[in-house]
Amino acid sequence: MFFFLSKTIGMLIQPFAVICLLFLASVVLRNAVWKKRCFWMAFILLFFFSNEFIANEVMAAWEIDTKPYKEMDRYKLAVVLTGSTIPDLEPADRVYFHRGADRVIHTVQLYKLGLIENILISGGTGSLGSVDEPEADKFQKAMVLMGIPPEDIMIENQTRNTAESAVVVGKMLQESGYRAQDCLLITSAFHMRRSLACYRKAGVNLQAFTTDFYSHPRVYYIDALLVPQLDAIMKWQKLSKEWVGMVAYKVVGYI
Length: 255
Hints:
Order of helices and strands: HHHHEHEHEHEHEHH
Structural class: alpha/beta
Oligomer: single chain
Strand content: 5-15%
Helix content: 40-55%
Strand order of the largest sheet: 3-2-1-4-5
Number of strands: 5
Number of helices: 10
Largest sheet: 5 strands, parallel
Shape: elongated
């Protein structure tokens, strides 16, 4: 039930969904005062959430920075969280990624630079109603194609969210003899705070390695300051999902 509610409620309270609902209310409501209020509230929210400068500043403050490879220590294991493949696409003889593919690419870089020795990929099917192949299996296929030996990759492909992953992976690390301080946790920068919180709650204090940044260096161009941008709305969508997830996980005791 929590899995279903966390997915559906999170979708309904995202900024763009709220804006659309307010515009819809401004059309269907009969009360003239409330029609006007809903319209102007939707318009103001649309202007605010489409401002690239504001969205980028908030995203940059939320994302956790990463280190240059030359400043990193060596680790026995990298735990890679999934969540960046596109399910149910055909033909099914390849792996389809959206922009979160950095989770795979940077993990492969770490391995080939000798900064990690082994890889544990964690994640099943995280979408509602999907019977697609588990994401961990897809990540493994991509990494093998990129030259990682299959014997250096472990997979956990049954969990559906970050909280479940933390519990199961924690047990796997204990059974395999890995110490938390010898392991990296790899996921997108916007997702790292919730991921670290889940793993710490499960008693596994991993080191963070962030990828897939949505923020960029601060700029003062006219289009960033004044022109509405779809990319800004996308940043707020990601942030709102994470914030709702943090609150929900806190309520049920996952973090």
